[in-house]
Design a protein that fits this description.
The protein is mainly α. The chain has helices at residues 5-26, 47-54, 59-62, 66-92, 100-111, 118-131, 145-151, 173-180, 184-203, 211-234, 255-260, 267-272, 288-298, 310-314, and strands at 97-98, 302-303. The structure holds zinc ion (2 copies).
Length: 316
């Protein structure tokens, strides 16, 4: 006896959904923005993100070495800088200018942080500034800490790049490529770290590094710490800290987050003057990204670096 049509379609739906998910892990554009299911976590789609966390447990087996710690710390710092200086201050806010080659190099380093592509990141961030802590803000902590920290980007409605927000960036095919195949650079980094560890084990055994050890420390642990430090800017820096400027949102200045994120914790300053490449406005507001950008400007790597307006330094 033939099954009723509804049962047949249900049988077909499960494997094809799985296939579509695999496809989307590799090609982020294999999904159209799903407005109908905006708020639901797409658990199949976020398996790689969950696995990044689970893989950190591997530290129990691989142990540690000074080499692994140095590699993890260096990759944290370099990728955090690429996120704060380029994904954020350059791509999202156009706070300075640079050559197309430098733009690509730092887009590549930023992509290695596995926070999706530069266009996706900048488009959602521009949306955040346009609606900060309002009804349409996708990651306001007014909807709860976990929603603002990570819930929002796990939902099916927020996987697609908001193309209408980034026409200036979408002009560059190399950025579109990184955005579309956003898993590629992290996978290459992970494989490279494993290979480096294997090489060191053979050529410099006194360093006590192994392939699995560099993979766990340099990729999984470093990236997961980098994740959560970046996410605190959306969650904690809209909740805890001081407000120097009466912005139309809940943004705060928080020195702990500022240290961990190379200057992004001066978030109330940033919401008050989003076009400024400088976020730490007082001498004691440590903003490592700003110091490095000044060095880059002195070396001619970047130019047109926009400082905060004079009134930013006057107001209290
Ligand atoms: Zn904000
Ligand atoms: Zn911003």
């Amino acid at each position: 006896m033939a099954l009723p049509p509804a049962d047949l379609s249900a049988e077909r739906a499960a494997p094809s959904r799985l296939r579509a998910t695999f496809h989307r892990w590799v090609d982020s554009q294999a999904v159209a923005r799903d407005e109908s299911d905006n708020e639901r976590v797409d658990w199949l789609r976020v398996i790689p993100f969950v696995c990044m966390h689970v893989a950190c447990i591997g530290v129990v087996w691989v142990g540690w070495s000074a080499t692994a710690l140095v590699v993890a710390a260096a990759l944290y710092a370099v990728r955090m800088f690429a996120i704060t200086a380029f994904y954020h201050r350059c791509f999202s806010h156009r706070a300075f200018r640079t050559s197309r080659a430098v733009q690509f190099v730092f887009a590549l380093v930023g992509a290695a942080a596995a926070q999706r592509g530069p266009l996706w990141w900048a488009a959602h961030h521009r949306h955040h500034h346009a609606h900060a802590d309002g009804e349409s803000d996708v990651h306001s902590p007014r909807r709860g800490f976990w929603w603002s920290h990570l819930g929002w980007f796990l939902t099916s409605g927020n996987f697609a790049t908001r193309r209408e927000r980034i026409p200036d960036l979408a002009r560059f095919p190399e950025l579109r490529f990184l955005d579309r195949y956003d898993a590629l650079v992290p996978v290459v980094l992970a494989a490279g770290l494993y290979g480096l560890g294997e090489l060191l084990e053979r050529t410099a055994p006194e360093l006590n590094a192994t392939g699995p050890q560099l993979l766990v420390w340099g990729f999984f642990i470093s990236t997961v710490v980098l994740y959560h430090m970046t996410f605190t800017v959306n969650s904690l820096a809209h909740r805890f800290g001081t407000r120097r400027f009466a912005t139309n949102d809940d943004s705060r200045n928080n020195w702990v987050i500022a240290i961990a994120t190379l200057g992004e914790g001066w978030h109330n300053n940033h919401h008050a003057f989003p076009g400024s490449a400088r976020q730490g406005l007082r001498w004691w507001e440590i903003d490592v990204t700003w110091y490095v950008l000044r060095l880059f400007a002195a070396l001619g790597i970047v130019w047109g670096v926009r400082p905060a307006p004079a009134r930013a330094h006057r107001s209290e």
